């Protein structure tokens, strides 16, 4: 093994740690069907749980549709008056940064054909309480050193790093 290989493995392990500990979810509106008329976005939203820090993303033909964040009146009446945000890239990622109800509509006339969605964003839940003493200790240790995700990414990182460096499982 060359001397640069352990450094590359360490960098890869750090990336795994960062990526595996990210808690935010990207909710793609309409899943593989995207932001289009004729969809039941209420049903779609009811099958998702949204938390502060999650993303809601809209995928659509940018020459045909767009996305406006509106208030309840704008949502109910399909109007963009008094909107609080608008997007038109065709791949819009919107941070849900507050615990509240958000209202999104299409402002090109699609709203009246069902292109509107309302989602309730919840505060982040507290970390789960551990039932075993060993788990409490490892979670406390991870929290003490400030590891995101309660240290689960760190454990995966050590596991992969040990194999990459040829040590087997520690």
From TrEMBL:
Keywords: Disulfide bond, Glycoprotein, Signal. It comes from the Eukaryota. GO terms for molecular function: electron transfer activity. Residues 25-123 form the Phytocyanin domain. InterPro entries: Cupredoxin (IPR008972), Phytocyanin-like (IPR039391), Phytocyanin_dom (IPR003245). The keyword Cytoplasm does not apply. Belongs to the early nodulin-like (ENODL) family. May act as a carbohydrate transporter. This is Phytocyanin domain-containing protein.
């Amino acid at each position: 093994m060359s001397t640069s290989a352990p450094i590359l493995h360490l960098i890869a392990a750090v990336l795994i740690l960062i990526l595996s500990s990210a808690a935010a979810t990207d909710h793609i509106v309409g899943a593989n069907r995207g932001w289009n008329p004729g969809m039941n976005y209420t049903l779609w939203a009811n099958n998702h749980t949204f938390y502060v820090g999650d993303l809601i993303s809209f995928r659509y033909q940018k020459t045909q549709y767009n996305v406006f964040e509106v208030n309840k009146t704008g949502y109910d009446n399909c109007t963009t008056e008094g909107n609080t945000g608008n997007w038109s890239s065709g791949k819009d990622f919107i941070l849900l940064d507050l615990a509240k109800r958000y209202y999104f509509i299409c402002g090109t006339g699609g709203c009246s054909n069902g292109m509107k969605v309302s989602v309730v964003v919840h505060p982040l839940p507290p970390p789960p309480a551990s039932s075993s003493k060993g788990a409490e200790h490892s979670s406390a240790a991870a929290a003490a050193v400030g590891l995101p995700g309660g240290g689960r990414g760190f454990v995966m990182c050590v596991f992969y790093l040990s194999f990459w460096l040829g040590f087997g499982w520690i």
